[in-house]
Design brief:
The protein is of the alpha/beta class. The protein folds into two domains: 220 residues, 3-Layer(aba) Sandwich (Rossmann fold); 181 residues, Rossmann fold. It contains 15 helices and 13 strands. The strands form two sheets. A seven-stranded parallel sheet has the order 3-2-1-4-5-6-7, sandwiched between helices. The radius of gyration is 22 Å and the shape is elongated.
């Protein structure tokens, strides 16, 4: 709980974002636990839709200059204020050391945004909490040093694996400039961060879990008719780590006698994948729906026969953590086929809660065909995933642990 009269400044990449329901779920739950929040977004929204969950957040939302040249007067006023703050010299020294190792425009922008944040945060701000270890945590860290406030971070997937080790070590240092704690949502990520942290106890494994109150009870699922089409569904942004290019190749390898349809939901530029599908002769069987809100996603899950999540490690090291879409599918007893990548096996045990496979097209195709041939087994695994979700991956325990950490940081 936040102290009386104070607010916790929450730094996010963008607000609202359809692809980050886990952040919206967490912030709404923290408000319900008694925390008074103020959101500071580094980017303006680009999604045209919103989840109903976004409308439940009551915290004020402020937008920092997305690019410094767009709001020069605001930036220079803020820097003038920031230079008079007690920790400005220390923050400037930390930033200069970072800039020496990362001479990028983004690093310069981070410091300018931090000056605006430090200058404009209300006097009663009790601390800062950033979502993502890379840019948001840098902005929060510099601003926290300027204002002599504690800060913390929640790390997820890409930010863990693509942030340089030197930067992670310094952000997790057990000194006045390091994060009071770092929460992360997978055991794999926690092990990596603890290996870099000066004090491993500062890294907390806190699964997001799922707020089942937001979802309808699972539908009755009659087994697919042998002669009917198998309805496949994938949900995820059209980026390399999601593996949809390999899934398209896998769909082209399915037996001629298997009638199937594939629906994709997710934002991003799909021109290349649509062209790939056309070249493979698959376009007539594919429905590209683009970005959808939560009710649309759940409706698609209730109508589908199989969720396919073909995640892989991208060429730059980016990878999934534990995608919430797996838990959402489990909430609707939708059978799951996923790849054994990153933290996915922390929720889905292959052969028990779904099917885990490699990310090569032949492996994906063989798995889809096998599931289509034994829908009763797929249904039993979906039932087991639903039971595990309720027993071990509910939202409440993780929110209680995170709330306690934030309360301690803010001194309530």
């Amino acid at each position: 709980m936040t102290p009386d009269g104070a607010r916790l400044a929450v730094v996010v990449k963008g607000w609202p974002r359809l692809s980050e329901t886990f952040i919206a779920q967490e912030l709404v739950a923290l408000e319900e636990a008694g925390h008074r929040l103020e959101l500071w977004s580094l980017r303006h929204p680009t999604d045209t839709k919103r989840h109903p969950l976004h409308g439940r957040l009551t915290a004020p939302v402020r937008y920092l200059p997305e690019y410094l040249y767009e709001e020069p007067d605001r930036v220079w006023r803020a820097r003038s204020v920031a230079q008079r703050l007690p920790g400005y010299a220390a923050a400037y020294a930390v930033w200069r050391a970072d800039l020496a190792r990362d001479r990028s425009p983004n690093r310069i922008r981070r410091f300018g945004q931090a000056c605006v944040l430090a200058a404009e945060m209300p006097p009663a701000t009790c601390g800062l909490y950033a979502h993502f270890l890379h840019t948001p945590a840098s902005v929060a860290r510099y601003a926290a040093i300027m204002r002599a406030l504690p800060w913390s971070v929640s790390a997820h997937a890409k930010d863990i694996w693509t942030t340089p080790d030197w930067e992670t070590r310094e952000k997790l240092a057990a000194d006045a400039h390091g994060a009071r704690f770092a929460a992360t949502c997978t055991a794999l990520g926690a092990a990596h961060l603890r290996g870099l942290a000066e004090d491993p106890a500062r890294v907390a494994l806190i699964y997001h879990g799922l707020d089942l109150a937001r979802f309808p009870p699972p539908p009755e699922r009659p087994l697919p008719a042998p002669a009917g089409p198998l309805h496949l569904l994938s949900v995820g942004r059209l980026v390399e780590k999601k593996g949809f290019d390999r899934l398209l190749d896998a769909l082209a390898l399915l037996p001629d006698g298997l009638d199937w349809r594939w629906t994709h939901i997710g934002g991003g530029s799909g021109a290349g994948l649509a062209a790939q599908a056309a070249a493979l002769g698959l376009s007539e069987r594919i429905d590209w729906r683009g970005a959808c809100d939560q009710p649309e996603v759940i409706a698609a899950m209730r109508a589908a026969d199989l969720l396919v999540l073909p995640s892989r490690v991208a060429s730059d090291g980016d990878r999934d953590g534990l995608p919430n879409v797996l838990m959402e599918a489990a909430s609707q007893k939708l059978p799951i086929l996923a790849t054994a990548v990153s933290a996915i096996p922390e929720f889905i045990k292959g052969g028990t809660h779904g099917v885990l496979t490699g990310d090569q097209p032949a492996e994906l195709a063989a798995a889809i065909a096998a599931i289509a041939g034994d829908p009763a087994r797929a249904a039993r695994r979906a039932e087991a995933a639903f039971d595990r979700l309720r027993a071990e991956f509910a939202m409440t325990p993780g929110i209680a642990r995170l709330s306690e950490r934030l309360t301690q940081m803010c001194g309530a």
